[in-house]
Amino acid sequence: MNVNFDIHKGCYKSNKGFTLIEVMMALAILGLLSTIAVPNFKNTLARYKLQVAAHELAQNIRITQHKSITEGVSHKIMLDLHNRDNYQLLTGSRGKRIKLPPGVYLDWTTYSEVDKTIVFYPTGAPNRGGTIAITNGKDSLFVIVSVATGRVRIDDTPP
Questions:
Q1: Do 143 and 98 meet the contact criterion of CB atoms below 8 Å apart?
Q2: Which pLDDT tens digit goes with each residue over 105-152?
Q3: Which of 17, 45, 73, 152 sits between 20 and 30 A of 27, alpha carbons compared?
Q4: pLDDT above 80 (res 37)
Q5: From CA 32, how far away is CA 41, in angstroms rounded?
């Protein structure tokens, strides 16, 4: 510890602390690091939203399948490829709309050939197997429903 005697004031003073140049350099380094980290954080957040949306869609498909088995009634999932930001869970004339997270949307589906609808019969079997692609504009995930069993899985590559 450096301690100097100040002749003009008649007291001892310490040289602890930072100079203005040292503080400015530290702030400049932090600013540079933050410009590198922020775009990476945005990509990570967008990828996380996409994964959450894919898992929620897969879970809703499984729930719809289980409801059709337990209730003995056909249940449907209708994909909105016009707005591309939602889908509906339908039982008869009643339904529930599920919105996708902001920045995530339905890209394409093989179910567009059958009114954009997945139907689960009381046996638990789907009307057909297919793929639903969801994207955030940069990345895509594919929710795949198997033909006979209705098994649902998520993959990075289309089947």
A1: no
A2: 999 999 887 688 999 999 999 999 999 999 999 999 999 999 888 999
A3: 45
A4: no
A5: 15
Residue environment code for 96-115, b if the CB has 16+ CB neighbours within 10 A, otherwise e: eebebbeebbbbbbbbeeee
Residue pair 140/129 in contact by the 8 Å Cβ criterion: no
Residue 95, C-beta contacts closer than 8 angstroms, at least 6 positions apart: 78, 88, 89
CA–CA gap between residue 134 and residue 144 (Å, rounded): 11
Rounded CA-CA distance 104/83 in Å is 12
Domain parsing of the chain, residue ranges: 18-155
pTM of the model: 0.75
Handedness of CA 9, 10, 11, 17 (dihedral sign): positive
